[in-house]
Amino acid sequence: MNCINMEHISYSCTGKELWFVLGTINAVAKVNVEDRTIELERMLPSISGKFEEHRAVIKNDNSLYVIPFNAASIVVYSGDNEIRLINLNENGDIKAVGGFIRNQHMYMFGSSDIIYKVDLDNGEHNKIDCRSMADKNHFSDFFWTDYTLNELDAYLPLSGSNGVIRLDANDGVSFISLGEKREKWANDNIILKDQKFYALYKDEEGRYYSSIYALNGETINRNEVIIDRDIDIYPYTKAYMHNDQWLILPYRYTNVSRVSVKGGVVKDLEYKKVNEGDVKRLFNAYSIIDGILYSVDHLSGNLLSVNLESMKTEVVELSMPEKSNNYLRNLTEGHTSVFTSELERFLTLGDFMNYVAN
After folding, report:
1. Where are the domains of the chain?
2. How far apart are CA 71 and CA 53, in angstroms?
3. What is the pTM of this model?
4. Cis link prior to 45 (omega < 30° from 0)?
5. For the structural domain made of 1-129, what CATH number should be given?
6. Could you give the CA distance from residue 65 to residue 30 in angstroms, rounded to a whole number?
7. Do 130-223 and 227-319 fold alike per CATH?
8. In sequence order, which residues have a C-beta less than 8 Å from that of residue 338 and are 6 or more positions away?
9. Of the candidates 14, 242, 264, 286, which lies 20 to 30 Å from 56 by C-alpha distance?
10. pLDDT in tens, 25-79
């Protein structure tokens, strides 16, 4: 299996599996893209007793690292089912929504101006403060949802802007502005490829662009993108750049769309419906496995697949093994009024996701 983690916070992929956190019930879920099943792989220990204690998971070798949001400890599951906590000794919550591993250290980031660095061998940790870069470049708010590793340098786009934080191999922090001046952008689709930044975004005046920048932030070209129907690239829409085109995942929309990196008119991909009826979908993360893009709809529990060679697109409903299903039945007992189906039909992830969403 050729599995590529697309370096977005929500998924970690290994082989034919996608791993992510269901923060509402404090569990790690695993999707098998071949069998089209979803399982509750691990129930997490309650640390803070708060909603969404964890939001992301990283699968590394035989271990699962579950990243804290409304908590202050990393939960680690090893291959022999051992569980341990790496306590970061914080008075408040970490508020991390993602992370990456380099040189046996985990770097965590999210809705804070702090990057946490944790030694995975001994648990020692320290903070990398990015606030001085924000003050220098007039950015008041931090929120990171993606990263790209370029050799040992990490690039973290700042959501809602044209700013990128560079974290070098020695943990030095520097700031890159894509373009000639600081701007507010309504997206976080910034991808590093072939030593260039590619960005798909909406500017402060409401116009959409596909632009290319050098590593130092200088503009190489900037092309307008035309959207002539009810689709918006704001605020949580995700896009993947394949060859010379952007593939835009549905966010409150029914289809995958695409547009050339050189700009032009956005067009929809046709897709095969396995379930009856159209829904406005919420796909906001993806991974690539064997040349196919996969994403899980956070509202309906459907699995989206796009073959990157043929552009064949399919949406199917994930099934859930009885063990996980029984747990959800017990968990949601007494709350059946929020289901879209009757209790005896509470057998799919879609029903559960409706419970979570409400």
Report:
1. 1-129, 130-223, 227-319, 321-358
2. 5
3. 0.83
4. no
5. 2.120.10.80
6. 14
7. yes
8. 354, 355, 358
9. 242
10. 778 888 899 999 888 777 777 777 777 788 888 888 788 899 888 888 899 988 7
